[in-house]
Design goal:
The chain has a six-stranded mixed beta sheet with strand order 6-7-8-3-9-10, with helices on both faces. It has a four-stranded antiparallel beta sheet with strand order 2-1-4-5, with helices on one face. Strands 11-12 form a two-stranded antiparallel ribbon. The chain has a single domain (about 10-235), classed as 3-Layer(aba) Sandwich (Rossmann fold). By secondary structure, it is an alpha/beta fold. It has helices spanning about 50-55, 80-85, 100-105, 120-130, 150-160, 180-195, 205-210, 230-235, 235-245; strands at about 10-20, 20-30, 35-40, 65-70, 70, 85-90, 165-170, 200, 215-220, 225-230, 245-250, 255-260. It contains nine helices and twelve strands.
């Protein structure tokens, strides 16, 4: 039998820090396989965004290795990395006077030849990405005229158009209403399930993480407090010491929500 393909993303005992906080993050050891959707959760300042940038190759680790498909991510050129990794930052451009179609087509740049114009294949890939993100109806609109949820879905469409093997997103649902939060997490889950992408998303919403993601990594002051299936990580006993609040659960057998323990219902239903 042929050997199993290497994991899409592997962090091997990675450590990182800044001059004022040397080696505050780590050690982190995690393996993300194709078809998995990971959530990175934790309090403010836990190191979530820094960890995501390490995964993207934007920060070189001080100690340890970051591997992409078996090879060191630091050995790849920017163009090579962009063909495999799509990174959607926390603060995406919102006031750019470009059409939605042009913004989404920018995702094809790492794959284009020396031609200045998109090929019919590029346009078809972009069309399909806009279809799965429900942005087809916005194609002629200027990005500057869109709502926050629409803008975020356009940037995710551009990331999908990039045809990456690994998609990294930093708080893509921040400041969005519930409808757009659910829509975006469904998109991410489906791209992992149906396209076989490896997806890692930083989020503050532990309930969305538990509902839509296959794995959860909980950070606490740069340390991995817990990691694994949502049912094992997103529990009051695991989360309460990290967040410093008493927590309880609401719901039934199919799904349970994490809520503050001083909820008027007493955390029981």
């Amino acid at each position: 039998m042929p050997p199993d393909p290497p994991a899409m993303l592997t962090l091997e005992d990675v450590r990182f820090g800044f001059p004022e906080r040397p080696d505050f993050l780590g050690p982190v050891a995690v393996t993300v396989q194709r078809g998995e959707c990971w959530a990175v959760v934790g309090p403010n300042g836990a190191g979530k965004s820094t960890l995501l940038k390490l995964m993207a190759g934007l920060h070189p680790p001080h100690v340890g290795e970051v591997r992409l498909g078996g090879g060191l991510i630091g050995k790849l050129s920017i163009r090579q990395r962009a063909r495999q990794v799509a990174f959607v930052p926390q603060h995406v451009p919102v006031d750019v006077d470009m059409s939605v179609q042009d913004v989404v087509l920018m995702g094809r740049f790492p794959h284009r030849s020396l031609s200045l114009f998109e090929s019919p294949e590029d346009r078809e890939i972009a069309r399909r990405a806009m279809e799965v993100t429900a942005t087809s109806g916005l194609v002629k609109r200027s990005l500057a005229t869109l709502s926050g949820g629409e803008t975020q879905r356009v940037h995710i469409a551009a990331a999908i158009t990039q045809q990456p093997e690994l998609m990294l997103l930093d708080e893509p649902t921040a400041s969005l209403d519930l409808q757009h939060q659910l829509a975006i997490f469904r998109i991410l889950r489906d791209r992992a399930w149906y396209d076989g992408l490896a997806v890692v998303v930083v989020t503050h919403d532990v309930n969305l993480a538990a509902r839509f993601c296959s794995h959860v990594l909980l950070l606490d002051e740069g340390q991995v407090a817990s990691m694994g299936a949502p049912a094992d990580v997103v529990t009051p006993d695991v989360l309460a010491p990290v967040y410093g609040v008493e927590l309880a659960t609401l719901g039934g057998a199919d799904y349970r929500w994490i809520v503050p323990a001083d909820d008027p219902s007493g955390g029981r239903r």
